[in-house]
Amino acid sequence: MKQNLQRSLSCLKALEHRFKCYLLNFSCVFVKMPRKCCVPCCRSNYKTETTSTTTFGFPKDEELKKKWISSINRKDFLPGSTAAVCINHFDEQHLIWEYRIPQKDGSAHTIERKRPRLADGAYPTKFPNQPHYLSEDLPKTRKSPSLRKAEEITRAENQFSEWCEADNIKSLNEIKENVAEKVKDPWQHTVKENSIFIYKIETSDCPKVSICFQILSNLTVNIFYENARLDTKSVLGFVLGNDLKLDKWTKFDCVLSHLNSFEAKEMSVNQKLSVIKILLHELIEADSENDYSEKLKFISAQLTLAFCKKIRYDSDIILWCANLYFRYPSAYLLIRKTGSLTLPHQTYLRRFTTTLSMDNEDNIHVKYLKEKGKLLKEHEKLVNLLLDEIYITPKLDYKGGEILGIADNSEECVAASTVQTFMVSSLFSSNKEVVSLVPVKNMTAEDLLRYTKRVILHEKFSNYCEFGVGNTI
C-alpha cells in the first residue's frame, strides 16, 4: 500500500513538471519579446525603453549582408538568426509604407501599411549615437519619367483649379471690395447700392464722360458711349459670353482693356444701328402718349427693316401699308418704287384680302400662325381680339385667274368698299398679329358677328392663341 502511494506521488510530480514545461513553451511561442537592435550605442527594445521599435532582420543575400555588417561598425560581429537592426538606422527612401495594387486602367490603388518593409538593396545609413562620419547621407532617388509626368499633370490641374476658383466673381459685393485695386488711371469708379459705374473722363476741352459701363447686381453690364447706350452683346459679347455676365476677374480686365481703346469708328453698322434703336426706344418709353411716339415707332421699324437680312413685317406696318394701298394703290406703288421706305409687295398685301378658308391647309398665313403659335409661351397665348375697318377704293382686279376685290358679304359680284380687319393682341406681351382681312360692303351686325365667330372658332388658331373669356372686343 505504501509503495503504491509513493508511486502515485512520483507520477503526479512528473505530470506537474511536464505541465510547467508546456506552459513555458506556450509563453515562448505566443508571448514573443521584440528583438533588440544590434547597433552599438542603440537601446531600442531594451528593458529601459518604454516603447517598442520596429526592427528588420539581416538579409539572406550574402553581399548585402556584408554591407549591413560593415555599416553598423561593430568589431568581429557575426549576426545570428535573431540579430536585427531597428528602423531608426534606415533612410526614409529605403522604407515602404504602403501597398500598391495595380488597376485595370493603369493606375494604382494604395493602402497604408501598419509596419513598413525595406526596399530592395536597403542598408543602415543613420547612426545618431555614433560619430557623424559613420552616417551616410543618401542622394535623392530620381523618379521615373512616367511618375514625374503624372505628378506634373496633377500639380498643373490643381493649380488651374485653384486659379479658376480665385478668378470667379460670386456677387456684386465682391467687386465692391476689390474695385479700388482693379480700377487704375485713367478709369474712375462710383459705387452705388445696387450697381457700380466705371468710366473715363476726357478733359481735353469740356470735361465729359467718354465711355462708361455699369455693373448691375446680377453681374450683367450696360455700356454707354458719348451719353448713348450701346448694345452689350455686339460690343462685349465675345468677352462676356452668351449670358453677358461679368462673373470672372479675367473678364473684368478684358472689358477694361477693350473699352479703354474703344472708339466710335470701331463700331459696325449694326452696332450704330443698335444705338439709334435704343435711343428711339427710350424716347418712346419716356412719353408714349405724345404725338411723335407713333412716328418714332414707324422710324424704328423702318430702320430694322432697312438692315435686316430676312425681312419680316409687324402687324402695325402691314395695317398701315394695307390702308394706304387699298385707298391709293398708285401712290403706294410710287412710294415703294422710290425705295425710300421698306414696304411689302402688293401681292403680299392682296393675300390678306381673302377670308380665311376653313378647309385650306395650304394657306400661307394660316401656316405662319400655326408655326408661330408653337414658339409662344402659354401666358402669351391669352389675347384680345381687335377689330378695325379700312376704307378702300371700290375696284375689281383680275390676277392669277381670280377676281379680287369682291365683297364677301354680298351674293352679287360687287366691289368691296371696306376691309374688315381682325387682329389679336397678347395680354402679357407685345405680340400682335393680323389674323384676317375681309373685303366687305355695307356690312351689317349679322355679318360682323358671323366673321367674328369664324375667327374665334377657327380651329387653326387653337395652337396660336386662347381668347380670354369676358375680354372686350
Q: What's the gist of this structure?
A:
By secondary structure, the chain is α+β, with helices and mostly antiparallel strands. The chain is built from 13 helices and 15 strands. InterPro entries: THAP1/10 (IPR026516), THAP_Znf (IPR006612), THAP_Znf_sf (IPR038441), TNP-like_RNaseH_N (IPR048365).
Question: What would you say this structure looks like, in words?
Answer:
The structure is a single chain. Helix 7 (269-286) runs antiparallel to helix 8 (293-307) and helix 9 crosses helix 10. The protein contains 13 helices and 15 strands. The longest helix has 29 residues, at 2-30. It has 473 residues and is of the alpha+beta class. Pfam families: THAP, TNP-like_RNaseH_N. Residues 33-127 form the THAP-type domain. It comes from Oedothorax gibbosus.
